[in-house]
Amino acid sequence: MDADGAEPVDASLVAPTPERSIRGEVMFWAAHLMFWVASFVVTRMIVGVFRPEIVDPPALAAIETLLCFSCTAAMRWLSLQESLLSRLGISKIGVIAGGSILSAVFVTLAQLVVGRSYGIDPTSRLELIARFMITLSSLGNWCAIYFGSQLIRERNTTEVRALRAESAALKNELARLQGQISPHFLFNALNTVLALRKDPDAIETVTQALADYLRFLLRPSDRLEPLARELDALEQYLTVQGLRFGDGLVTRIECDLAARSVLVPPVMVQPLVENAIKYGGESAERPVRVDVTARREPDGLVIDVANTGSWVAPGGGQSTGTGLHSLERRLQLLVGPGARVTSGEENGWVRVRIRMPIPQRSEIEEAS
Length: 368
Known about the structure:
Elements: H1 11-14, H2 18-50, H3 58-80, H4 82-88, H5 92-117, H6 125-195, H7 200-218, E1 225-226, H8 227-245, E2 249-255, H9 257-260, E3 263-264, H10 270-283, E4 288-297, E5 300-308, H11 322-335, E6 340-346, E7 349-356, H12 361-367
Parallel strand pairs: 2-4
Antiparallel strand pairs: 1-3, 4-5, 5-7, 6-7
Helix pairs in contact: 2-3, 3-5, 5-6, 6-7, 6-8, 6-11, 7-8
């Protein structure tokens, strides 16, 4: 990753190295020569079986093969001159179609001229047309193999570039979304320490809990981790907040055993708990209650973060409404488009629910 945080581009997709270019040219010319030698042999075998009365001297057949070899080499060279084709207004399809027909006409006329020098004339117009069609068929087969392989290669290269660009964009977006979380927590944690500065025992407790949580937050993390890891760290976070709010805050974490092992993005629940404490404190009577529950269901993992109080609509108060959208987007990037984050208010409780598919091992390996 470069200084701007962008994913480095594979140089092999931008421009071929001299070694790869030379090797590619050698392979092309070897394959090119082998094709026309094989075409020469197969054509003579077919003519020998179906039209044994047509006996062309080997030299005449060799000249035909050499002309076809030269024509296809010229077509290939012209197809690579993109600036020239652009100026002439000719597409690669035009090069393929027009080049094949013109080359077939040229080779057929050359056969006629050279054949007469050997005392060979077409016995009928039908024979001349047959020679033209055989030559055109050979040229068409070459174009299908060469230009078809080029088209597949270009498409694959484009797809790889698009996938790498998308991967870089996703990684950058994930880093940006993660950056929205960590500084926000740190500012609130420092305010908690400042609020307890007159109580040495509480300072010791909150400092230890804060250190444990920061160790979790700032350590190198995987893209997906067991839910238990964050819930255990969340206990330390709530210790800090509990000391800050005292009897004004009551919290509960409940998670079934099956849900604890589910792999989830790190630092997923804490921002929701932080918001529950913040907005619950603004709209609910004391003590504010915050409940975190997690359970594994047949179709995925469900996590609820609920607090007493009333819903703060996006745009109202200090809520911008971007936090839940960012969390949902982050989940969709990491565990799939089926992840959803919903919210609502009922019977004096505000509830945010995360519902996400459970990543399969193959998906986890691909993500890493």
